[in-house]
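Researcher: Let's do a round of design. I'm pasting the structure tokens now; please hold your answer until I've finished.
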């Protein structure tokens, strides 16, 4: 990926990989670019770009404002859950970020997060209230879900008897792990139990809030870290990228409900016969991008009552 400054017009998506004078761009994730400033080694800058990945391949096209939606939704939930666990993020206001060049404030506003650097716990804390995705696939094959026995006869998108924790590794390819393996990766029983309890409480509160707005939270993934030995919530929180949100009135057991994310892009890619899901990605038509952008803005409005644009 190029490191030259990206040209930005209001309607274009933001592909990221900005060069910021005085800052070191040290990581390019699928969505976020991470920067560090030599004067603040304990903090980092997370910039949520408008990049879009599907089937683990980053597309050539961007979805304008997607990074802003992800940041806006994360901020909304972080404020809701702040009494349950401290967060690593410090501020999303460019004016409060030390050493950030002023001419970049407008470009980065809404997509930037100044956060304390945590020692990441390399477990993806996945919670599920409904059967979908890899959860459905495992149940269909084994009748179980990770360590959990389940009643027979559940269908795709069935509600689970209770919210279940189905951890995976945080790695290139996320692998399902047992509770014992999760405890080992987390490091001790006390912290593992704390993460489990906090994640469940956050999930249950958010699911209730979302349900009041006509949306079901089918599942989500949290990431935790440690700062000075204390557990903190890191990364994005209950965004459509890390969660499955379904319109409550369109959930029919046995079917796949329409989710508020990049499903439109995935469906388009699935319809192509000659793409083997490795780079280079195919071209995504403009109307698919527009529909995807609308979907992200829609869930943002429903959940937070606001829009980042
Ligand atoms: N406060 C934090 N401390 C350390 N790592 C973090 C923090 N917040 C987020 N991260 C990590 O930063 C990366 C964010 O970039 P992203 O594009 O989401 O990457 P990925 O493709 O790995 O999901 C993730 O690897 C996430 O685990
Ligand atoms: Mg991520």
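Researcher: That's everything. Go ahead.
Model: Designed sequence:
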């Amino acid at each position: 990926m190029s490191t030259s400054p990206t040209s930005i017009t209001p309607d274009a998506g933001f592909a990221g990989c900005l060069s910021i004078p005085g800052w070191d761009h040290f990581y390019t994730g699928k969505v976020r670019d991470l920067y560090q400033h030599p004067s603040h080694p304990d903090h980092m800058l997370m910039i949520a770009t408008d990049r879009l990945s599907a089937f683990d391949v980053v597309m050539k096209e961007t979805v304008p404002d997607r990074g802003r939606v992800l940041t806006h939704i994360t901020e909304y939930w972080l404020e809701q859950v702040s009494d349950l666990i401290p967060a690593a993020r410090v501020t999303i206001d460019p004016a409060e970020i030390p050493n950030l060049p002023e001419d970049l404030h407008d470009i980065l506003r809404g997509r930037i997060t100044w956060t304390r650097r945590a020692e990441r716990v390399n477990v993806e804390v996945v919670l599920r209230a409904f059967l979908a995705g890899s959860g459905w696939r495992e149940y269909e094959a084994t009748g179980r879900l990770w360590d959990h026995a389940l009643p027979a006869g559940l269908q795709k998108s069935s509600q689970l008897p209770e919210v279940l924790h189905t951890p995976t590794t945080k790695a290139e390819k996320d692998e399902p792990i047992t509770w014992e393996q999760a405890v080992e990766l987390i490091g001790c029983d006390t912290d593992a139990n704390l993460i489990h309890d906090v994640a469940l409480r956050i999930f249950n509160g958010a699911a209730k809030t979302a349900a009041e707005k006509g949306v079901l939270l089918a599942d989500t993934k949290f990431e935790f870290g440690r700062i000075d030995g204390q557990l903190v919530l890191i990364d994005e929180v209950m965004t459509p990228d890390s969660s499955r949100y379904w319109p409550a009135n369109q959930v029919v057991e046995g079917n796949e409900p329409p989710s508020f994310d990049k499903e439109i892009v995935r469906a388009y890619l699935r319809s192509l016969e000659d793409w083997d899901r490795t780079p280079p990605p195919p071209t995504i038509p403009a109307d698919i991008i527009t529909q995807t952008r609308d979907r992200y803005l829609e869930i943002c409005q429903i959940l937070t009552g606001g829009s980042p644009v």
